[in-house]
Amino acid sequence: MPTAFVLINADSGSERKLLEQIRKMDGVKEAYLVYGTFDIIAKVETKSLEELREHISIKTRKLDNVLSTMTLIVAD
Fold first, then answer.
1. 58: DSSP letter
2. Which of 62, 33, 29, 32 is nearest to 43 (CA)?
């Protein structure tokens, strides 16, 4: 089961609302507000790499108030 950590930059002031949207998405196992370069980190698990790609590039990146993402796919 492919797993990735998705680091998300959000529009200023929209972080909590965006976090709640992300937590409700299928495949999101955990999501947190964080301090630093990124605003939110989400742990995503899917059935295939293709599903993971779709989750990130089609669903997550197109949410309102998402400025950018960085994806770290778990290797081991």
1. I
2. 29
Supply the range of the domain harboring residue 69.
3-73
Antiparallel, parallel or unpaired: β 3-10 and 28-33:
unpaired
- Domains contained in the chain, number: 1
Q: At which residue do the structure tokens 């790609």 appear?
A: 53
Query: Per residue in 28-69, pLDDT tens?
Result: 999 999 999 999 999 999 999 999 999 988 899 999 999 999
CA distances from 37 to 7, 8, 25, 47 (A): 9, 9, 23, 29
Do residues 44 and 52 make contact, with C-beta atoms less than 8 angstroms apart?
Answer: yes
Six-digit token string for 52: 């993971």
pTM over 0.90: yes
